[in-house]
Amino acid sequence: FLAQELSSTPRPRCRATARSPLWPPLDHPPVMLAERLVQTADHDGGAVSSRKFLVGCRGAVGIGIGVALSLVALVWAMSKVVHGSEAPNRLAYDPLLSQHEGVVAPEPLELLGEDDRCYTHKINGNLVFQEPTIEQYDEYPPFKSHGGLHYISGSKTVDILRYETGLPFCTHFTDSSNHVHDVCIKDRFCQFSMVMPVQWDIQWHGEVFDRTGFDALVAVAFIEFSFKPAMFLHTFPGIRVRCMGYGAGDTRIVGESPFVDDIVQVATHLI
């Protein structure tokens, strides 16, 4: 009955052909099935009705694919609007790249109040006003006697600390000299870096526990913190932690030391 209705009802002529590049070939299994059904039901006008039926089926498939792609694009756009996109931070500064042209150091942190920064970093409960540098740890006598610190090949790592709650995102951890660090990221454009002595790994105590492991030769780590937005497959935003390890030959790990204590006191303006 459907085939008779399609063959008897006048329809506008369609320029699409069976071998048009816009449609799949006629030997496609679903197309062959539809063609056989129509031709079996109507022997007289089978060729014409099957061609019309095929054009209709192909048009419906095309519309379905278009709707599916539109829904995917809409979900992606909504995730960008809700969580925002990554952008460089106004205070972002990498001391290891300061020698390159175009990189400008930010305003000294001692001139900024805690509320003016996009992050907070405390050591042993004291606010850090000036982050320690690789150059400061390079003066550590065991390192200096071995030619100073150098990058340990293959020691770059990237970890994401996820948070279900809103900003600020905070985590605390301990360095190899038993100094306790507290870091909070306060907005989604924030990025900052720090340096500290490490041994084997860093254990991150945030909303969930995580850890970053290091090579046995790594004695000092350069750590960069930045906001990580939620993505399509990751529902929650968090903190992206990128680390680079430095060492000096086979020197021992930096433990409790007056040298490190002095660096911490200078950073927190206790001396």
Account of the 3D structure:
With 271 residues, this protein is of the alpha+beta class. It contains six helices and eleven strands. The protein has helices at residues 2-8, 29-41, 46-83, 134-138, 141-144, 258-267, and strands spanning 119-123, 126-127, 150-151, 157-162, 169-174, 180-185, 191-197, 201-205, 209-213, 220-228, 238-247. The strands form three sheets. Strands 3, 4, 7, 10 and 11 form a five-stranded antiparallel sheet that branches. A four-stranded antiparallel sheet has the order 2-1-6-5, with no helix packed on it. It has a two-stranded antiparallel ribbon with strand order 8-9. Strand 1 (119-123) and strand 2 (126-127) form a beta hairpin. Helix 1 packs across helix 3 (46-83) and helix 2 (29-41) packs antiparallel against helix 3 (46-83). It is elongated, with a radius of gyration of 32 Å.
